[in-house]
Specification:
flat, mainly alpha, 219 residues, 0% strand
């Protein structure tokens, strides 16, 4: 044990272990900080719903962004003849599109613009929204919006927590590729969070447009 070479080796190994443990602890704190920020964002929005706040403007913006994002996805090419209009029609089937929608001729495609498609879908979405509000009544519509939003947020958030834990467990493997695991974790977490938000918007809109309300008949 008193051998000089052996002593230096042990000290060197100890410093490496302590350094590695410090790095792990720091990474864990960084990971926790990312999750904490996401949790605060979700919980602050959730609290507004639970407090009975009017979320109609928020929901209307969800509808708008859902339409715009899907048009952007299915019509991403600069050339309209390459747009996946059938996919877009099927995506909004039984909600905003009809069987004969987007059957454009070659001449039509030379003059059509993404904004035209967004406008068409938005007008139908607004009309359907107004129709359902008239059917349910304004007060009930506000409550339905809160219920739909809360249900979707809770479901998506729980799934997101599981996905983040899986990401956290596997992120250490990127160290073998000489990449910073914290940086990789933050980038992946940011993308996953944005995907979750988009999914919340889409599912809330779909639930709102398909929900049925049973009315009790008093005798």
């Amino acid at each position: 044990i008193e051998n000089g070479f052996l002593t230096k080796t042990i000290e060197s190994s100890q410093r490496k272990v302590e350094g590695r443990n410090f790095s792990i602890r720091k990474n864990v704190l960084d990971f926790d900080d990312v999750m904490s920020q996401q949790r605060m964002t979700i919980y602050s929005q959730r609290a507004k719903v639970l407090d009975g706040e009017d979320v109609s403007d928020y929901v209307k913006n969800m509808i708008k962004e859902t339409i715009e994002e899907n048009v952007k996805t299915y019509c991403s090419d600069d050339y309209p003849e390459n747009w996946n209009l059938i996919g877009l029609r099927e995506h909004f089937a039984n909600m905003l599109t009809k069987e004969d929608d987007f059957n454009y001729t070659t001449d039509d495609l030379n003059t059509i613009d993404r904004k035209d498609i967004v406008k068409l879908l938005q007008e139908r979405a607004d009309a359907l929204y107004a129709e359902r509000e008239e059917m349910f009544g304004t007060e009930n519509m506000r409550e339905i919006e809160r219920i739909c939003l809360l249900k979707v947020v809770d479901t998506k958030w729980m799934d997101h927590i599981d996905d983040m834990e899986i990401l956290r467990q596997g992120i250490g493997l990127v160290g073998y590729g000489q990449r910073d695991p914290v940086v990789e974790y933050k980038m992946s977490a940011f993308e996953m969070f944005n995907n979750m938000i988009s999914s919340i918007q889409e599912d809330t809109v779909r639930m709102l447009y398909h929900v049925h309300v049973e009315q009790k008949i008093e005798r």
